[in-house]
Amino acid sequence: MEKTPLIEALGIHKRFLAVHALNNVSASFYPGEVVAVMGENGAGKSTLMKCLAGVHIPSEGEIHVDGKAVSIPSVNRASELGVVFIHQELNLSDNLSVGANIFLGREPLTKLRLIDHAEIRRRTAELIGQLGMTFTPDTRVSDLSIGHQQMVEIAKALSQDARLLIMDEPTSSLTQHETEVLFKLVRDLRAKGLCIVFISHRLAEVKEISDRVIVLRDGKNSGELPREEIDHDRMVALMVGRELNLHDKEHGTAGDVLLKLQDVQIAHAPEEKVSFELRAGEIVAMAGLVGAGRTELSQAIFGIDRLLGGAIEVAGQPVKIDSPRDAIATGIAYVPEDRKQHGIIVEMPIRDNVVMAGLDRYQNYGFVQQGRHDQVATEAKEKLSVKTPTILQEVGLLSGGNQQKVVLAKWISLGPKVFLLDEPTRGIDVGSKSEIYEVIEEMAKEGAAVLFISSEMEEVLRVADRILVMHEGRLAGELTGEDMNEERVMQLATGTN
């Protein structure tokens, strides 16, 4: 006898004005399985999930729960049906306790119609125990790591008797250990009969955790893969429908030293002194666990954070960098980890984003040279193949990959000597990643020095000419040649070398 799906989407269409985001998409989800939903940015996977979770109402099609057609006009209705969506940007109140967050808006009441804080603590403790966590119901969420905040979101879902748990990029900000803890929990929940929907761009993780993969492309069904057929090439083929440049990197010849750090000290680890060099034409990856100090070091080099000691040279000349303005003037560019918060202004068009870092270069006696702005932005758009018909397009309406190209274009237009790239492919699909790698490799070929910070081992090994590994604020080691492998990176990153 064929099993009835827990929830089923049948012929779903979703239109946003002229955009046909979902075009006749169907998908089934069964109890006791982990299903990965994959696709490039803009493929429709998040839109489909939001239709199931009551965030969007389908333009056409039906949703069935336990074999019966239902309407899901709101998040509350989805919750009543057992569908809970844990978004990539966690929806927690930092100033409240764990228990208050879990039961916010659903607080149990005493006979006097007052909030029953004792009951909240009791039920929260029970949920925390189920998840194997050691923090208490009264712990403030702001005092928890991102991984533990993720667990609070899952506890909240379980408190709502979730049957279908949708997790959007759940590992994007987690350490390796936190990811392992999360995957163990996912397997435990699957064993208890929950269906877990796992949205991720990390193909290795999808292969590890998924029982089945559903792939969307351009708002349509592209295909499905059962457990035994899940591999990298099949997933990529279904997602992109085109050949990608996934060749091994050609290692060029390193040129002159463009960035030199000598005994640099930062507030993250004031007792440590960091020294290294970046040369023209090379891509140096910086690996390490979350909290190792990679971001803090790059921000100090760029003048966002203050150096406590040490010296920096750019192209052989000592420099004093007290602000990002100083860094830009010396020829250093910085691509931050969070592009939407710190890399672009989403409400502004591509043109204005591209020229914002060099406005003083595109003015004449204080007057804006609009024609020059248009020229610079158009050249950058074409060079980086930003997919948009016009430079007047709002950046916030672009895909994640194209937004990142705009961030890179902003700096490339200035011709810097040194690029500091912090997680430059975070939240970007496999097709866009390949394009970003090509852009970065071209930057190096044109003579720039690139520091590439990444938590994804696969891309560290793919792009790097050398690998620097950070551990607890210090430079734990440097790897070249045959020593550039996952085992050696992890030994250094964990301090077990």
How would you summarize what this structure contains?
The chain is an alpha/beta fold and 497 residues long. The chain has helices at 45-52, 75-80, 98-102, 117-131, 146-159, 176-191, 203-209, 232-240, 294-301, 324-330, 339-343, 350-355, 370-383, 400-412, 430-445, 457-463, 486-493, and strands at 7-16, 19-29, 34-38, 60-65, 68-70, 83-86, 164-168, 195-199, 212-217, 220-226, 257-266, 274-279, 283-287, 307-314, 317-319, 332-335, 363-364, 367-368, 418-422, 449-453, 466-471, 474-479. The strands form 5 sheets. Strands 6-7-8-3-9-10 form a 6-stranded mixed sheet, sandwiched between helices. It has a 6-stranded mixed sheet with strand order 16-19-20-13-21-22, with helices on both faces.
Task: Based on the model shown, name its key terms.
single chain, alpha/beta, Rossmann fold, 33% helix, 25% strand
Question: What would you say this structure looks like, in words?
Answer:
The chain is α/β, with parallel strands linked by helices and 497 residues long. The protein is built from 17 helices and 22 strands. The protein starts with 6 loop residues before the first strand and ends with a helix. The longest helix is centred in the middle third of the chain and has 16 residues, at 176-191. It has a six-stranded mixed sheet, with helices on both faces. The protein folds into two domains: 7-240, Rossmann fold, CATH 3.40.50; 257-493, P-loop containing nucleotide triphosphate hydrolases (Rossmann fold), CATH 3.40.50.300. The mean pLDDT is 87. Helix 4 crosses helix 5 (146-159), helix 13 packs across helix 14 and helix 14 (400-412) packs parallel to helix 15 (430-445). Helices cover 33% and strands 25% of the residues. The protein is globular.
